[in-house]
Amino acid sequence: MGREIKLFNRKIKIASFIPKFIFKVQHMLIPKVQPVFVHPKLNSFSQYQEDLIIDSLLICKSKGFYIDIGANDPDLLSNTKRFYLKGWSGINIEPNPNLYNKLLLNRPNDINLNYGVSSTRGKLTFYVMSADTLSSFDKNAAIESGKLHGATLVNEVTVNTLSLIDVFNNYVQGHVDFMSVDTEGYDLIVLNSNDWTKFRPYAVMVEVNQNDSEIVRFMEEKDYLLIFNNHTNGIFIDSRADACRTGADVAVCLD
């Protein structure tokens, strides 16, 4: 109905000749796009239900260990709350002091660290946005994301940093089942701070919409297989692991 005709050397839209009620009827007949419905029974807290994918890949393990880098809120859009409720424990790393305090209150069985993860130990400026999920050590990434979502820079705080190698050496005993990395444009720096020859979580979820191809290439070079990508987050599994499953061994986890 957006086409045009030429009449007396003037272009006139065909829609001009169509009564308005026709458009109302058309609008009523065309089904509206409905948001994805996920029943609360599934206990999913990730932004796009990625925690259900992770749980299925891990065959619904009742006990396990995670690392959540850029943990943000312990409940809202959390990639690890589902697992905490199942009886897992892990490490939550969050540079925002306010959110770190919430983690202390709501995750007493976890190790909660008010740090940033970077290439070395030191200090960095953390840029706090009015929408917490957009805060970052990368000022440009935070501000550009803020423009897209109507958020503004509200504070700058100095935060101590450590590397992923430090995290594994100082706080991890045994195997890591799942690691989440969501640091708003700082993800490659976080990933580069690990020794992937020694420390290999089975499943790794990384925000890929900032540096999609770079992150995928980096993880593939470390022998991780991209098994899921919704163009916001990518999920990788360790192709060296004996337990590596590529689709046949998954489960639906209702708990």
Summarize the structure in words:
The strands form three sheets. This protein has a seven-stranded mixed β-sheet, sandwiched between helices. Strands 6-8-7 form a three-stranded mixed β-sheet. A two-stranded antiparallel ribbon has the order 1-2. Strand 3 (65-69), helix 3 (81-86) and strand 4 (89-93) form a beta-alpha-beta unit. The termini are far apart. The protein contains eight helices and twelve strands. The radius of gyration is 23 Å and the shape is globular. The longest helix is centred in the middle third of the chain and has 11 residues, at 139-149. It has helices spanning 20-29, 50-57, 81-86, 97-106, 139-149, 164-171, 187-192, 212-221; strands at 4-7, 10-13, 65-69, 89-93, 111-113, 116-117, 122-129, 153-162, 178-181, 203-207, 224-229, 233-238. The protein has one domain: 3-Layer(aba) Sandwich (Rossmann fold), CATH 3.40.50.150. The mean pLDDT is 84. The protein is 27% helix and 24% strand. It is of the alpha/beta class and 255 residues long.
What's the arrangement of secondary structure elements?
Elements: E1 4-7, E2 10-13, H1 20-29, H2 50-57, E3 65-69, H3 81-86, E4 89-93, H4 97-106, E5 111-113, E6 116-117, E7 122-129, H5 139-149, E8 153-162, H6 164-171, E9 178-181, H7 187-192, E10 203-207, H8 212-221, E11 224-229, E12 233-238
Parallel strand pairs: 3-4, 3-9, 4-5, 6-8, 9-10
Antiparallel strand pairs: 1-2, 7-8, 10-12, 11-12
